Batch of 2 targets.
Target 1
Amino acid sequence: MVRPPFDNSYARLPDRFFARVVPTPVPAPRLIRVNAPLAADLGLDPEWLAGEEGVQVLAGNRVLETSEPIATAYAGHQFGNFVPQLGDGRAILLGELVDRRGIRRDVQLKGAGRTPYSRGGDGRAAVGPVLREYLVSETMHALGIPTTRALAAVTTGDQVRRDTMLPGAVLARVASSHIRVGTFQFFASRGDVEGVRTLADHVIARHYPDAAQAERPYRALLESVIRAQAELIAQWLLVGFIHGVMNTDNSSVAGETIDYGPCAFMDEYDPQAVFSSIDSYGRYAYSNQPAIAEWNLVRLAECLLPLLADDTKAGAAEANEALDLFAPAFERAYQAGLRRKLGLLTERDGDIELAQGLLLAMATNMADFTNTFRRLSEDDPSVRSLFTDPAAFDEWAARWRQRLEEEQSDPAARRAAMLAANPAFIPRNHRVEAVIRAAVDRDDFAPFEELLAVLSRPFDSQPGFEHYQDPPAAHERVHATFCGT
Ligand code: AMP
Ligand code: MG
């Protein structure tokens, strides 16, 4: 086997950007799973990765020659409060690999032991959150939404202390980078303008090469991140996803979904839905996500002020002009997505009101978000029974049919388009919890494998697996997901 040829551009940045660390070995690593297609994309041999040496590498027990492990420094606003020093407290970047498409990607071990940024933490991860991140991030990818990926997961043979003792695990995660809004804040809050500039140049070269050609590259960088985040959040809303901890340190400048903690897909549509047990004020509720993303981007803009113009006032004017792009970019992506969900192939006045009419009826009638759109796509008459008052659906559906008739689209094409926009399967919380219980209580990973297989094809009807479409029964409902870090 040719060992992975890591090439580590981040480790070549100035010393103050990171700490060199080595993963702390674990007693008895055991493979949970290797993501073979992703491994192959990265030029890794999946069989080697799942074999003895690969598992040692995935557990952090062995560091390959070309790897230069580091923990990166960052800061961040957590629930609105600024913390000047966070950093990778339990994640270690092994290095970067250039994938088959020529895209440079980070390979990181989450739960690989303490680093200089661990503060009071143990540097470890429990198996539950590792399985949740694996399932949810891979679903996100299958849904076509930018995200970090799960390359592999192993158990460590150690226990970690949380509310109780839990089996420890390590997630090998792949991202186009792990650079966060909080990474910029780390330097900006120290008055380190050179650090901000070096980081900005790195991000431009890595993620937004077009910005380098622009008349004002840093303004173009800011605008690129704003657009990427606006489009990302629109995609989240369109599948009913709630990130749960949209702190600036969990906000990727590459526009990927990152740091899956107490996240969830909603069952019945509720714009105020919050799952995270640590979000007691609903700061990161479903419908607040666009506003919070914009708030995070204002923080990024503040960091870039000295690069945008020679004086603060002119810089602020530049920043504000760039930030004005957020709302229209979000609306454009969100509205286009709503049209797709409703099978509207052309744009007409009143389309958005029509979509909002359905959402309002769903919210008032506690209709399941995913199943409503899916059954609508399938022309399944039982969709009305998802509403506490089915007449509310009927009233809306008459308007929708009228609108479809005006469009005169081919019904089969319309249906196919809707089936490709409205997933049948999402990682429902109660299913994810059941998978975690089986792994923790019975060391049984078969339910994880089965759920993952279903979720890897979220838009396909999968006969025999329809039960995964069911919302939770009353006793299965999960009211809060815990950070469980
Ligand atoms: P998160 O909530 O996972 O995004 O983490 C927020 C911050 O806490 C980051 O700096 C993490 O690296 C750090 N952190 C979270 N859990 C641990 C842990 N078990 N050990 C050390 N640091 C941690
Ligand atoms: Mg984080």
Target 2
Amino acid sequence: MRDPVLYPFYADLSSLPGVGPKVRPVLARLIGGETWLDLLFHLPVSWIDRRNRATIDLAQVGEVATITGTVDKLEHARATFPARIRLRDDTGYITLTYFHANRQWLERTFKIGETIIASGLIGDYKGGRQMTHPDHVVTPDKDDELPEVEPVYPMTANLTSKALRKFLAAALDGIPDLDEWIDAHLLKRNNWPAFKQALLRLHRPKIYDPEGFEIARQRLAYDEALAREMAMGQARLARERRFSRAIPRAIGAERNIIEALPFKPTRGQMDAYSEVAIDIGRPVPMRRMIQGDVGSGKTLVAALAAAQVAADGGITAFMSPTEVLARQQAEAIGRFLAPVGIRVAALTGRDKGVAREAILNDVRSGKIQVLSGTQALYQSDVDLPDLSLVVIDEQHRFGVADRMKLNAKGASPHMLVMSATPIPRTMALAVHGDLDISVIREKPANRQEVTTAAVPDTRIDEVMAAIARAVDRGERAFWICPAVDSEDAGDAATVARRDVLASIVNAPVEMVHGRMLGPDRDAALDKLRTGEAGVLVATTVIEVGVDVPEATIIVIEHAEKFGLAQLHQLRGRVGRGDKASSCLLLYQAPLTEGGKERLDILRKTTDGFEIAEADFRLRGPGDLLGLRQSGLPTFRVLNISEDANLIETARTDAKSVLMADPRLEGARGAAIGRARDLFAPRIASMVTENE
Ligand code: ADP
Ligand code: MG
């Protein structure tokens, strides 16, 4: 139910004059969308100031100037020389240069003895000034057609900037003024223009005012932040109006589980669990994320929650991104919960037919209280009437859309998502605004620091020899071969490396790669876990969650090709036991600046939060979070790191609006609702569908 006043913003590009079946796909690809709104948010990257009307002697190399002069000479192109036009004024000469220009056009445009105005970048050629391919050439009577300030857009082949400007002009003329949705004080304090005014200032500026451009951009960025915070806030309100089973804390079971552990839980683990216990003790669906670095022991927290649920007669579904992990987690949780007689089963795509039915029957009859599986658990027919808690492990592979899909299933279970990607607070707010967050900062006390070294791949033989010696001492190792060119190449590299290592190491060498079947992968991993194998060669399929406490070395080939977060995740496969561990980053020289910086950061720190901050700084938020994977629209104007304060302000503002007007019925509420529909339509519609 969108407000009809917004229709022009949703109009298809093809309704713009000049956008036919040929142009539309080119334009759509350039702006990353198909509506007028997408076009209007294709903002200029800079602006050219053409007011610099210099005489020729004052035109500075490297500046844009608009020069009035008399055509003095025209030389057509010949051989490798471009066409050259000499202009003169009272102060000197300048040359206009054209490569591959049409002869007739040149003669029509540049008539000897006539005056013209040329605007463009002043260059230098063998000591003389020249303008190569002026941006504009007009006769003096057309002077007012020369834009004084000209926006510069990211462009693509097959589309001229002139055409783009024409489409934008049509869209700008076709959109209405909208009622202001930003708080009047905030608007005034920041000197922000109205929404349409901001677009006009950026796309069709009357004056060259870099500060004013930034102010207009900020206003649009704030619009996006506010819309998103509104949608998230409404989702939260809707959730709080729904009922979930309130599950009392099971003190006895909790104590028995903890007493049977071979270690003492950390403070962070217990604090996180307390927050979860309180949440699921309320009759409102929990939406909580536990953020804890790899190895911080998140599984135990989930297991304690599952025990609380089981003590109340409910079922817990535990979801992992891969089958290998689902089975491993079934085992780990089963071990934690065995002392209190809670049974855990794995249910993945591999369990079919009778076996699958048997497991489901045991769940329905209450013999099994925890199911560990993959996404298949909720995409399939599985019907779990007593499902009270859903745990989503390694959440970066799941997105808001998946979470909301889950909401639709069953009688609104509590939901706990676990992430090993520590992210800065502002970003957490912007991305996971629908969740409450618990952070586990410390690592278990028995952990050894992992020593990290960067080694050029010319020394790969030494590294392999070192692995062989470690295996002789009874240690185990991972060896990672990335998919450098393609998935297939990664698999092939894995096979080759396994063969070489097998000839050097005095123990079986196993491998895991993308094309292997689930059971074969599990078997290989199991051999490393039990110690039957000494080395596991793998592609990045083992990136998350795999737990082999005896593994002490991880070698990462082509480490320079990985992102920081991923390297950190991989490194987290070792240092999980009580033996000193090491991570060897094999790189191919020469390293790029970025590659060198990444490897340096990893050598200096093992703190996931510090690494996340660095990653954020180096690459921006996109890849770190798997924002794209998570199914969220990335922001068009808002920059999560630079506009952090805008996000905080928007959050506070959205909260106070919702407090006063939860249904957005007042004038400002309705205006904000329009902003939400414009900038956060996906979240808004998911909320109404599912919450
Ligand atoms: P992650 O947070 O990466 O999911 P896990 O839950 O897999 O970490 O825990 C990693 C390993 O540490 C497991 O073998 C687990 O049994 C063990 N572990 C968990 N908590 C502690 C603790 N407090 N002290 C020692 N070891 C622990
Ligand atoms: Mg884990």
